[in-house]
Amino acid sequence: MRVIRIIGRSFRDAFKSIGRNFSLSFASIMCTTITLILVAVAIVCAANIENATKLIEDELSIVVYLNKDVTTEKIDNIKSDIASESNVQEYTFKSKDEWKLEMAEYSQTFDTVLNYIGENPLLDSFIIKVYDLEEMHDTAEYIKSIDGVETVKYGEGMVETVVSTFDVVEKVVIVAVVALILVTAFLISNTIKLTIFSRRNEIEIMRLVGASNASIKLPFLIEGFVIGIIGSIIPVCITIYGYVILFTKMGGQLFTNLIILIEPYNFVFLVALVLVVIGALVGMFGSLKAVRKYLKI
Amino acid sequence: MKFIELKNVNKIYKNGVTALADMSVEIEKGEFVFVIGLTASGKSTFIKMLYREEKPTSGTVTVGGLNVGKIRNGRVYKLRRKIGIVFQDFKLLPKLTVYENVAFALECVGLKEKEIRPKVMNALERVGLKDKVRSFPNELSGGEQQRVCIARAIVNEPKLLICDEPTGNLDPETSKEIMDVIDSINKDLKTTIIMATHDKDIVNRMKKRVLLIDHGVLAGDYAKGRYKAHEGN
């Protein structure tokens, strides 16, 4: 009961104090707002890059063409060789007849030409998806060495460039997000420090009349929490409305259809939730850090 | 019965200044003791040590059975709830009313509103400020503010009341009134009182036990009524 009363009073005091020290509270709120907007932009970028990388990676596969006169027995051997390679995630066999049918469906001209030739000139093949794109080259080399394999295609050069570029961009954005969160924490804690500095007498008196450290910290903790939440309102709105508008205007892709944007719904709410949580936590820890200084009186 | 005991207490500050040197003293429950000495004699350090604002460098300070020097920062509140402290500069919260300032001490402890009210009114009645409950500190005279501070210090019914120059900012007439209030607390509530002061008139008039501190050393311990101001201070 006693604890509940202390918590209740702490909430009352926290709201009172935000009102009484309005200009400083406002400064803290604005500073949270501005940094959270930057955090939101960084998170949206990071998520979209991650998404685009994944989509592109999913598209990438190795196509293995077998020798023209390969026997069914040989195909089984090649199949088991491919299956034994650790980087191979999945493989599908496509016979030359399947290719022919698929091409015929795709274009009437192909159908005519292929029929004209008579014997099917296409090759049996495997389509392979790998776990690790960075090792795609080695996997392709290995498969090339298997007896009965004619050629191996995997978009050499392009794959490596795409993978390494996205890798770098992703890392940069993650570093930016972390740095921004740290900056937010630092700014908020400094602003709250100012608020608390103006109230150090109050803290001193609380200590002198026998308030426990926890009950002194609690109102400040709640104050930081509330400031963080209020500060995240504008960034949340900007994220939700801004991203939806951007998505609609851009038609769901960024400049080319290579980079597909993430569907706004659920995604924006998730980002909004992350922003609110960051705001609240950073506000709380910022003020805790600031008030601790005065508890060592 | 010993209530406060200092045993071979030394206090050396980080800057090398020795504030107290090998001080040993005992104070009984219910006693009224003046602590006198010149500025920078160490009497403030002595007082601060009792409520664990300072820790002894060596030696032990015991208050009500608690080894004060051993209390961790996070546990200091347990000691503070057993003692009341009156300051020269009152230390009232300017944005709270008289009632709220006194109630503040009980709210910190987590008492219920209906337990707080009678205790606060009782304390304010004792210091004679029952009709000023709704006033703010800046609407009160110095003497009245000090009464609020005393009410806040005793509202928790502490066993020990520490007064750090409570009359330092007050005129002689008001000082006398404040001393009457403090004396009545000692007599009626049997609260142990330790009071640091510069005011020779008060010390002479009240005829209580006097501890004279000089350059960090206990230069004299005078039993009730034995001290006369011209003897040194």
Task: Write a brief structural summary.
With 297 residues, chain A is an alpha+beta fold. Chain A has helices at 2-20, 22-59, 72-84, 96-106, 108-117, 136-144, 158-197, 200-208, 213-231, 233-250, 264-294; strands at residues 62-66, 88-94, 125-130, 149-153. Chain A folds into two domains: 2-56 and 161-294, no CATH class; 61-154, Alpha-Beta Plaits, CATH 3.30.70.3040.
Structural notes for this entry:
- The complex is a heterodimer of chains A (about 300) and B (about 230).
- Chain A is about 75% helix and about 10% strand.
- With about 300 residues, chain A is an alpha+beta fold.
- Chain A has 2 domains: about 1-55 and about 160-295, no CATH class; about 60-155, Alpha-Beta Plaits, CATH 3.30.70.
- In chain A, strands 2-3-1-4 form a 4-stranded antiparallel beta sheet.
- In chain A, helix 2 packs across helix 9 (about 215-230).
- Chain A is elongated and about 100 Å long.
- The mean pLDDT of chain A is about 85.
- By secondary structure, chain B is α/β, with parallel strands linked by helices.
- Chain B has 2 domains: about 1-80 and about 160-225, 3-Layer(aba) Sandwich (Rossmann fold); about 90-155, no CATH class.
- Helices cover about 35% and strands about 25% of the residues of chain B.
- In chain B, strand 4 (about 60-65) and strand 5 (about 65) form a beta hairpin.
- The model of chain B has no long low-confidence stretch (mean pLDDT about 90).
- The interface of A and B includes residues 2 and 3 of A.
